[in-house]
Amino acid sequence: DLRTQALRSPLKLSLAAVEGRQQTRQLETRISSHGRVAYLFAPEREIPADGSPLLLVLHGCWPNRTEHDMAQNAYSYRELSQQAGVAVLVPFALQHTWDFVMSQGRASADDDFLSFAINEARSLHHIDDSRIAVLGF
Q1: Tens digit of pLDDT for each residue in 86-121?
Q2: Which residues share a beta bridge with 132?
Q3: Cβ neighbours, 10 Å, residue 39
Q4: What's the rounded Cα separation, in Å, for the pair 70 and 59?
Q5: Burial class for 3, CB neighbours closer than 10 Å (0-12, 13-18, 19+)
Q6: Which of 38, 44, 73, 111 could form a disulfide with 31 if both were Cys (CB 3.0 to 4.6 A apart)?
Q7: In three state form, how does the secondary structure of the chain look?
Q8: For position 11, what pLDDT does the model report?
């Protein structure tokens, strides 16, 4: 069943406590840490009282990519953010695939960055923590 599959996921993400969330209207944000980068797109429409859903798009890895390639790929999700009214976070792995995939769940550098990027998105925008979804992987 789906619950059992979720429990076996190699992702080990952790949500940090977010104090005093900003209500920024910045629609596009580049998040980076330790050589990794993610792009965050927020909807223009009014944010619901309980916050916006967040879609985490894990399609950010392929060999020999450039910063331009990554930006172009990420910006293909900007329209989705606007049409669906959700925040979309598009992170990129440091290598050609996610390290937790290559290590069968033992490596954690990408996990750490994903947690950082999600928490950064949560600190910049009012995100409904009960509506965080993952696409890809």
Answers
A1: 999 999 887 777 766 666 656 678 888 888 999 999
A2: 54
A3: 24
A4: 10
A5: exposed
A6: 38
A7: CHHHHHHCCCCCCCCCCCCCCCCCCCCEEEEEECCEEEEEECCCCCCCCCCEEEEEEECCCCCCCCHHHHHHHHHCCHHHHHHHCCEEEEEECCCCCCHHHHCCCCCCHHHHHHHHHHHHHHHHCCEEEEEEEEEEC
A8: 62
